[in-house]
What does this fold into?
Amino acid sequence: MSKGKTSSILVWILMAMLIVGLGGFGALNLSGTVTTLGTVGDEEITLNEYALELQREIGVIEAQAGQAISFADARAGGLDQAVLANLIAQHAMDAENRRMGLSLGDENLAQELFSIPEFQNADGSFNRDAYSYAMEQARLSEAEFEESVRDETARRWLQAGLITGVAMPETYANTLLNYVGEERDVTIARLDADMLVVPTPAADDVTLRAFYDANLDNYMHPATRNISYAWLTPDMLIDTVEIDESTLRETYEARSGEYNRAERRLVERLGFATEEDAQLALDRMNRGEASFETIVDERGLQLADVDMGDVSQNELGGAAGEAVFVAPSGSIVGPVNSDLGTALFRINGILPAQSTTFEDALPVLREELAAERARRIIDTQIGDIDDLLAAGATVEELAKETEMEFGTLGWHPNALETIAGYEAFRAVAEQVKTSDFPQVEQLEDGGIFALRLDDETDATPKPFEEVRPQVLTDWTNSETVRRLQEMADGLVTQLEGTAAFDAFGLEARSEAGILRDGFVAEVPANFVSQIFGLEAGKVIAIQAQDHVVLARLDAVRAPDLTNPNTQQMRQLVLQQASEALALDVYQAYAADLQNVYPVTVNQQALNAVHAQFQ
It folds into this structure.
């Protein structure tokens, strides 16, 4: 990519960030005598810079999640630390660029600013008023914005210089593909209890007690943490929440796109300079001389470049929409002359139209709105519950004075009943100490809880009489497998090579093309890993719970690296590995720069910014 194009894209990104992001950011009050959050060498990280980037990242997450997130949740996910670390790395690079004298010149900077359509008049000339207005809306001086453009461009140049030419060798991809794509063909036979000449005898109590004592760890009551808790979830309140019909209808109308959607199609568009060129390409495909993928590749493109995703007929418009939406899935339509030129369209799938009436949507809408309102009700109670706990209230008293419910639990890692099924509860239950005071914690569904560790109970053996049936089953299985293993030991060497399994009275089956991550039915869980450790022609006996499996490795096949699909995968592996290596090089360099240019952070200033986000 050329320097001009890179800078142009950069300016667009910055303007989107500044004009859109700061539109909401202006509501934050960060005025005061302290303007610097920290330093990297002689480079300053400003409060506004950190706050802007933090708000922008929160906006990105909200857009991806499709819902608002609280600042507390953002911090819990480490977003504030990630933003600060990124700014420190950027300013370390700025310090290095200034040492080297690397910067975007005034003439090139002006050209980039003049080329932005938002800053142009109708005749393409630079509109000073539009530029000044944008800076005013962003609450930046022109000098600050232009300096940020210079810094970001210089960082990109430095980064490009670091990672250009960084690539994984082809041997890496070949080795990985050989490992992942290698296949195994095996012959399998199962040895069951009914194949024993002498059946496994019944065990007396002496034998069972000896087995019980030798395997006592299998018959233990787990160590438990005895916990008392109070909790409140939206489900506990949902029956008490009333949602009026007008609100339900307004929500239905606002979300009509979810309930009523026109037919959409998964479409790829391959454009051509002329209708004749498009027809020639279509004729080649119809004759079987080339595939759609081949034509795309010949044009110097990738499938991602022609993929339109899922589109409606209105989005395609005109002749293209009419042609595509009457054709069946899997067909190639064209040539079609549209406003964007002549093209062929491949239809990869059809997403049928959807129509859901208000009455049909009502039960789900009512439940969703009631649950959301219940969550808000719970949120409003957190402060009061915090105050009660701060005043010394117990979890029992919380249940008496609030809508929370009291419960007790002998918690252990395998406990999943009621509140123990929540990860948030499990995390606190695992760490809490008897000396800890209860605190309000939040559950994944918007509920809350507070708990107290009363005491702990050590693991204890279950009485023999209580588990005798299980001990009998376990001993019988163990003894059966031991006898079957003796039988298998006598067959292993005889079955090696190409010996016929049925010659030994075994009912065998073949499995071909097994991959390292493959699945084979009716075999022990470690079967695949075991056969990938065998040499061709060798036999192994693998024990299961109550039987033994004999497996012979018949063939080992390396992947066909000349196969087009394999070659495509190979290129993808090389690309991803090279990108990962380039990122490692960049991160190592950025980390080293932070050792060269000392970093300081004003924690009080950091807290002040965070307070504005609460």
Remarks:
- The chain has 24 helices and 19 strands.
- The radius of gyration is 34 Å.
